[in-house]
Amino acid sequence: MSGFTTVTGPAAAMPEENIDTDIIFPARFLLLTSREGLGQHAFHDRRYDADGSEVAGYVLNTEPFRAPPVIVAGANFGSGSSREQAVWALHGLGVRAVIAPALGEIFHNNCLRNGIVPVILPPEQVAEMLASAAAGVAFTVDLEAQTVTVGNAAPVRFDISPERRLALLNGWDETDLVLARFADDIAAFEAGQRKIQPWLYPEETTA
């Protein structure tokens, strides 16, 4: 995945609480096996009516929120089933950060592993940000500084684990993260193992 440093742009306001992963990515699309193109199905049943026409007035059907880099949400966003496709669909839509008072636990972890920054802030701060988002004020999420800046307001700091912050900044997956932290230890272990169990490391033969 690509690394994340900062993102700036409009934020889609979704004040409703308990927007679950079935709303974000309806279950009938789980048969799709590729990550590519999943963004078109994000919030499908909110964005489109039964005949496929856009639902007028829905936030993701209005400018400038059709592909928002940031979502500001009500509490418990991403609750429900553990489907990782919900995060893939958000990423495909263009979302790189979600701000909320609380997120579904598995959804929160899936964000961290798929290039979306989960920003957890107190409810009163999120309420203010929801109003600003609805008014079209630009948001900047700065992962390096661990801040959210709304318009000309003072930056608001958020917490994130150092390990996950490092992985997001560098665009590392789980394997990359392990190698970044333990590459020397792994190499030392393999060197010792080669000496005492050389049969595990057969020499490559050439044809």
TrEMBL record:
<dbReference type="InterPro" id="IPR015928">
    <property type="entry name" value="Aconitase/3IPM_dehydase_swvl"/>
</dbReference>
<dbReference type="GO" id="GO:0003861">
    <property type="term" value="F:3-isopropylmalate dehydratase activity"/>
</dbReference>
<dbReference type="InterPro" id="IPR033940">
    <property type="entry name" value="IPMI_Swivel"/>
</dbReference>
<dbReference type="InterPro" id="IPR050075">
    <property type="entry name" value="LeuD"/>
</dbReference>
<comment type="pathway">
    <text>Amino-acid biosynthesis; L-leucine biosynthesis; L-leucine from 3-methyl-2-oxobutanoate: step 2/4.</text>
</comment>
<dbReference type="InterPro" id="IPR000573">
    <property type="entry name" value="AconitaseA/IPMdHydase_ssu_swvl"/>
</dbReference>
<keyword id="KW-0432">Leucine biosynthesis</keyword>
<comment type="similarity">
    <text>Belongs to the LeuD family. LeuD type 1 subfamily.</text>
</comment>
<keyword id="KW-0456">Lyase</keyword>
<dbReference type="InterPro" id="IPR004431">
    <property type="entry name" value="3-IsopropMal_deHydase_ssu"/>
</dbReference>
<feature type="domain" description="Aconitase A/isopropylmalate dehydratase small subunit swivel">
    <location>
        <begin position="1"/>
        <end position="122"/>
    </location>
</feature>
<keyword id="KW-0028">Amino-acid biosynthesis</keyword>
<comment type="subunit">
    <text>Heterodimer of LeuC and LeuD.</text>
</comment>
<comment type="function">
    <text>Catalyzes the isomerization between 2-isopropylmalate and 3-isopropylmalate, via the formation of 2-isopropylmaleate.</text>
</comment>
<dbReference type="Pfam" id="PF00694">
    <property type="entry name" value="Aconitase_C"/>
</dbReference>
<protein>
    <recommendedName>
        <fullName>3-isopropylmalate dehydratase</fullName>
        <ecNumber>4.2.1.33</ecNumber>
    </recommendedName>
</protein>
<keyword id="KW-0100">Branched-chain amino acid biosynthesis</keyword>
